[in-house]
Specification:
three-stranded antiparallel sheet
């Protein structure tokens, strides 16, 4: 494959298109990364050049989807950042289960779920933690912008690289070998519902798309690809999407301090988590969905 150079004019056009539509930021220092991804998209699209790719992507449709598929990052694996899952298992879930004992309902949202390892990790953890799973109404929503990632997530078939931080007992308990890969059990797959959602668009929190009234939101290593202003808007929407007392999980490389100023900051071993205060107003202004 021959790489086409990204002219100054096309760089600005693609940069602004990606920022406005999906929040992806490609400042000058990431220009070569953008060019590399666009050339892969160009090859996949079979269009003659990057100018044609931009014209088709700007108009929407197949070319835009191809560009998204090659520029969104899907690096993930089961139980990534084990310290956070330890805190979830040992401290947060027991407290939430006690607080939800009367309603027996629990809502979790994995925002930017990529190929599904994160929400499925939560599902496996809940499968082990719930005292009486059949009597609980558990909702695990997993959203991403990339439809190819979502298709792979729904399929539930994973290679060995996805298990590099997974306890062997969990792979034996929840997966079945299949042609040198591993198929997740239907019981765990059925606990997670996948949907496409653009975090930059203001259509959440909303009842219709299931993003309202969450107990836990995980959005890890996602906003590192956004500009600060975009991240602030997203974090504010997450705050509104959480029930009082709900928890926000972010990656270690995410922006810190004042972006999360509406939250309580909680320090745990090897990780920091953010909690919506228990005395925060219950109702927030909902989006049209």
């Amino acid at each position: 494959m021959i790489n086409e150079q990204l002219s100054d004019e096309l760089y600005v056009l693609f940069r602004d298109l990606l920022r406005s539509r999906c929040g992806l930021a490609y400042p000058e220092r990431k220009r070569m990364d953008l060019m590399h991804g666009l050339n892969m998209a160009l090859h996949a699209s079979r269009l003659p050049d990057l100018a044609a790719l931009y014209a088709e992507a700007e108009a929407g449709g197949a070319a835009w989807e191809i560009v998204l598929a090659h520029l969104t990052i899907g690096e993930t694996y089961f139980f990534r950042n084990q310290a956070q899952f330890d805190v979830l298992r040992e401290q947060i879930l027991p407290e939430l289960l006690e607080r939800r004992a009367k309603t027996r309902a629990l809502r979790v949202w994995s925002a930017g779920c990529a190929t599904g390892e994160e929400p499925y990790s939560v599902a496996m953890l809940l499968g082990e933690s719930l005292p009486d799973p059949e009597s609980w109404q558990v909702s695990i929503l997993a959203t991403d912008l990339n439809p190819q990632f979502l298709a792979r997530a729904r399929d539930g078939l994973y290679g060995s690289w996805s298990f590099r931080d997974t306890p062997e007992r969990l792979r034996e308990q929840f997966f079945t070998p299949e042609h040198n890969r591993w198929r997740l059990s239907a019981g765990i797959r059925n606990m997670v519902s996948f949907a496409r959602l653009n975090l930059v668009e203001p259509g959440y929190p909303a009842i219709l798309n299931g993003t309202y009234g969450q107990d836990i939101i995980l959005c890890r290593n996602v906003t590192i690809y956004f500009e600060e202003a975009t991240t602030r808007q997203i974090i504010d929407r997450f705050y509104d999407a959480l029930f009082p007392g709900g928890w926000l999980f972010v990656g270690h490389a995410e922006p810190q301090a004042d972006i999360y100023q509406r939250f309580e900051v909680h320090n745990f071993p090897k990780t920091i988590l953010y909690r919506k205060p228990l005395d925060a107003p219950f109702f927030t202004e909902l989006k049209s969905g």
